[in-house]
Amino acid sequence: MIERILDGSLMPHGQCLLWRADLLFLHLVGDFLTVLAYALIPGALVYFIFKREDLRFNWVSVLFAGFIAFCGLTHAIGLVNIWHGYYFIEGMVKLLTGVVSIVTAYMLWRLMPSFLSVPSIAMLKQRNHELESVRAELERANKTLEARVKQRTYELEKKANTDSVTGLSNRFSIIEKLQSNFFHFQRYKRTFSVLMIDIDHFKQVNDLHGHQVGDQVLEEVAKSIKKTCRQTDFIGRYGGEEFLVILPETGSEPATKLAQRIRANIEALPLSIDSHVTCSIGVAHIEPGLSQKTLVKQADEAMYSAKNSGRNKVVAYKSKI
């Protein structure tokens, strides 16, 4: 059986071509180029599969590469059979090529639904466009959210630093402003003064008219102080019926004049209660060597001096009050 398969004594294919040079050239060159191509294509497929391990259906690609290789082998034997007659070998290779071809075709058709599920270039472009639209929408939503967070943060900061009754800075916030002015004085020698304002007999307002009316009085007094002061001044509710005013770039004398205007305007306020309210104001001016706590204490002492001398007065702090 083996001898018969290896028997090359049959009539060579070249004799069928009458050994004509033109026919031999066409067949030899055609088969040679086909063998060369069928050798390079499987190599390229195997190399590609080796480099791209992430691809699906690698075994199908290997099967397809084997199919091409067998096709090339039949052409290679065809070249040999130009001069020899190994037709049994050629037939067996063709049979194996046919089997591999049928298996490859069967597997390709079986996997056709999976192949068709792979997105096309057009589908990928469409999905990319959809993703870009989603990304743009997310960016818009993110910007909107950032704006809302920024606005909410601003509202919370304002709420945390604002007195709910008067709308002025609360004690924490006005102390921060005082600290900032104190640092500017230490570093840049920018002078400033402070006013400590206390509403006279405010407890009687609450006792006679109730806390709701008391809050209304505080609100009206705060509006009057704010209206009288400059835009560069800082005003805050220091506690209870006390207000602290910071006057940047202001000496003791102009601060005292401003305090007198504040006192007069508060006394002239038209309130819902039968009587008017008055206030006592202490004035203190920053000096080298003073701490901010001492400065507030001086304004407080000056304010109590105004109360002790009859109320509804302005007193500037002196070393001995």
TrEMBL record:
Keyword tags: Coiled coil, Membrane, Transmembrane, Transmembrane helix
InterPro entries for the chain: Diguanylate_Cyclase, ETR1_N, GGDEF_dom, Nucleotide_cyclase, Rev_trsase/Diguanyl_cyclase
Domain GGDEF: 190-319
Transmembrane as UniProt keyword: yes
Listed EC numbers: 2.7.7.65
Manganese keyword on record: no
PANTHER family: DIGUANYLATE CYCLASE DGCM-RELATED, REGULATORY COMPONENTS OF SENSORY TRANSDUCTION SYSTEM
Record protein name field: diguanylate cyclase
Record organism: Catenovulum adriaticum
Taxonomic lineage of the native organism: Bacteria, Pseudomonadati, Pseudomonadota, Gammaproteobacteria, Alteromonadales
